[in-house]
Amino acid sequence: RSLSMAASTSASDLVTVLMHSSDTLLLGYFHDTKQVALFRVVLPAAHMNNIVMASFGMLFTPLAARLFAKNDYAGINELYWRSATWMGVLSFPIFALTFSLARPLTVFLYGARYEQSWIILSLLSFGYYFSVALGNNGLTLKVLGKLRYVVIINILAAVINVVVNLLLIPRYGALG
After folding, report:
1. How far apart are CA 112 and CA 114, in angstroms?
2. Within a 13 Å sphere around the CA of 137, how many CA atoms are in the beta-carbon half?
3. pTM of the entire structure?
4. How many CB atoms within 10 Å of residue 170?
5. Which of the residues 118, 153, 157, 159 has the least number of beta carbons within 10 Å of its own beta carbon?
6. pLDDT tens digits along 107-164
7. Rounded to an integer, what distance in angstroms lies between the CA atom of residue 26 and that of residue 165?
8. CA dihedral 163, 48, 59, 147 (to 10 degrees)
């Protein structure tokens, strides 16, 4: 069981590295460094949408594991939705800032030469916030021992990410 958990955690980490680096690598392959800069400059601001989720993950996992050990699936369900709700609420101010005010925020943080990155920030923020608002899906599956699903979903996500990147980046650059 611990070997399976280590494998699924390693697969999750590998997918995270692949998904965060493939965008930049493919963008650099198909376009110039300006396009890479337009994309990479706003990533830290967009990633701020994940701060609350990362904090909740450290609290969610041990509690969900304790509930699982007691076979309290109703408790796990309640914990999942309660934490998803709180993550959505607490992350919303960051989302509002990085999505609704993406243009002035981009100019304020990075200067006028990166102004066209605001749309990228807006799209990335929407995606990250949507992920946060859906809750700790992956952690819940891991706690429930559904490691095969975690690995399959991670591999599918990586493949889809690369395929979509190959379809959109050559045509649309950093926006793709």
Report:
1. 5
2. 11
3. 0.85
4. 14
5. 159
6. 999 999 999 999 999 999 999 999 999 888 888 888 888 888 888 888 898 899 899 9
7. 7
8. 0
